[in-house]
Amino acid sequence: MKVMEKAPAKINLALDVLYKRPDQFHEVEMIMTTVDLADRIELEEFKHNQIKIFSHNRYVPDDDRNLAYQAALLLKKTFGIQQGVGIKIEKNIPVAAGLAGGSSDAAATLRGLNRLWKLNLSLDELAELGSKIGSDVSFCVYGGTALATGRGEKIKHLPSPPKCWVVLAKPVMGVSTADVYKRLDLQKVEHPNVEKMIQAIENQDYRQVCANVGNVLESVTLPMYPEVSHIKSQMERFGADAVLMSGSGPTVFGLVEYDSRLHRVYNGLRGFCEQVHAVRLLGEQAGLE
Ligand code: ATP
Fold it and tell me: Is the Cβ–Cβ distance between 84 and 52 less than 8 Å?
């Protein structure tokens, strides 16, 4: 038997870091929302009691470093499952890009194996398990739009933001999230107003969503990689309504309300940036199968 799951990328409309906790994790406040750029995960029962990863992308590990592998192993150990699984990952989300590709693959694997192995776990239970794999996995289990607090694993669902296009542009290099957090100096950052962003989403006020995007991790990644600043300024110049780096970067996203403007932003970026995608916000918790 086989099951398929869609594993969408996320962007952060706001990302704030409050302080470093005694357990060395950072206390964060993030507004996350899924976009229509997704990996596809195919899970197939194996006779042999082992987990195997199949992927054509050379940047995706095919062993226990893969977050989808870790998700399968966690379910096997927690529920004493003596079955194997083949996990095929069709990678469409750029790797190490600030788009939570690995976390979304892990979340999709949890949802898919819940069906394949008939575990009958709720999304809340899967999200709780997911938090053991990585801070973004809980959000990715649900998708949609949410405020994530704690180290990212405490999820409060929000309505879908107002409809718009999202242009994603990724420079060639990848960025290590751990490295960016290590270099973060909280004395030097400008904190986004997360409360105002929540209000803007609840009021369906597109202008206020655009006015309140903010990401403290830009203070680390932008000075390290001038390419990211360049993409940001070009996206602004081509007329995106709001421009921000997603997660720890290096992907930059632009929000665009009108189709006519979308073409200008997309084509302008394609002139000098290889990886550019124009996608829709998924917004609500989507059917992810
Ligand atoms: P986040 O925004 O959650 O920090 P990211 O989008 O910046 O994530 P990922 O694409 O998840 O980064 O990849 C980060 C690293 O994780 C990669 O360099 C890769 O070695 C490893 N990795 C583990 N599992 C996966 C996976 N399924 N897909 C992609 N990368 C994975």
Answer: yes
Confidence of residue 274 (pLDDT cuts 50, 70, 90): confident
Residue 53 forms beta bridges with which residues? 87
Q: Residue 230, exposed/middle/buried by CB under 10 A (0-12, 13-18, 19+)?
A: middle
36 is catalytic: no
pLDDT tens-digit profile of 209-221?
999 999 999 999 9
CA 4/CA 115 separation, integer angstroms: 10
For the chain, domains (ranges, CATH) are 2-158 (3.30.230.10), 165-280 (3.30.70.890)
Residue 278 three-state SS? strand
Compute the distance from residue 61 Cα to the ligand 1 centre, in Å: 9
**Whether the CB of 39 sits within 6 Å of ligand 1:** no
Residue with tokens 């996320």: 10
Report helix, strand and coil shares of the chain as percent, to nearest 5.
35, 30, 35
Report the half-sphere exposure of 24 (CA within 13 A, side-chain side). 2
Host H or E run for residue 210: helix 206-211
- pLDDT tens digits for range 187-210: 889 999 999 999 999 999 999 999
Check pocket membership of 75 for ligand 1, CB cut-off 6 A: no
**From 17, 25, 60, mutation site for ligand 1 pocket: most ligand atoms within 8 A of C-beta:** 60
Q: Note the pLDDT tens digit of each residue in 229-267.
A: 999 999 999 999 999 999 999 999 999 999 999 999 999
